[in-house]
Write a structure and sequence with these properties.
Elements: H1 7-15, E1 18-21, H2 25-37, E2 42-45, H3 48-52, E3 61-65, E4 67-68, E5 71-72, H4 73-83, E6 90-94, E7 112-115, H5 120-131
Parallel strand pairs: 1-2, 1-3, 3-6, 6-7
Antiparallel strand pairs: 4-5
């Protein structure tokens, strides 16, 4: 792993897992494959309902698509806050070109945004940043801005 990842964040991810919630199977598969190559344990879910029915240990971080077919990532986020006062860091991914156009109130509880198509290395960077002691990132600046999209 690159040295920019703190030992705290590496240890937290070693003991935990990252959840990917996206209704697009190809996105879930590609992201999961890359995260596993990076040594991150991953569980994937095709819907908010599927994730909410999961009964295993809590995730260290969640990657959630804004549009989930029959529901939205915002609805999933709200359900997580209803059942847990301290849900894991949430990284929202979206194909929307103008992330700032989302109602700022809808950003409540969202740790970061990435715009699709996203750079997998930007996602890994965010996961490690959000799993470390300093979990603050700019939630309205997509991490993929001004970078070549993958």
């Amino acid at each position: 792993m690159p040295s920019l990842y703190s030992s705290d964040s590496l240890e937290r991810l070693q003991d935990g897992w990252v959840g990917i919630v996206d209704d697009d199977a190809s996105v879930r598969r590609a992201l999961a494959r890359y995260l596993r190559i990076c040594g991150i344990r991953v569980e994937t879910f095709g819907s908010a309902a599927e994730f909410l029915s999961y009964s295993g240990s809590p995730a260290a971080c969640l990657v959630i698509d804004v549009q989930l077919g029959t529901s939205t990532g915002f609805e999933l986020r709200d359900r997580l806050f209803d059942r847990d006062t301290s849900p894991p860091p949430l990284i929202f991914i979206t194909a929307c070109d103008d992330i700032a156009a989302f109602d700022p109130g809808r950003g409540r509880g969202i740790s970061a945004w990435l715009r699709k198509p996203l750079r997998a290395d930007a996602l890994v960077d965010l996961i490690y940043q959000l799993s470390g002691p300093n979990k603050a990132v700019d939630v309205l600046t997509p991490a993929s801005v001004n970078k070549k999209e993958a």
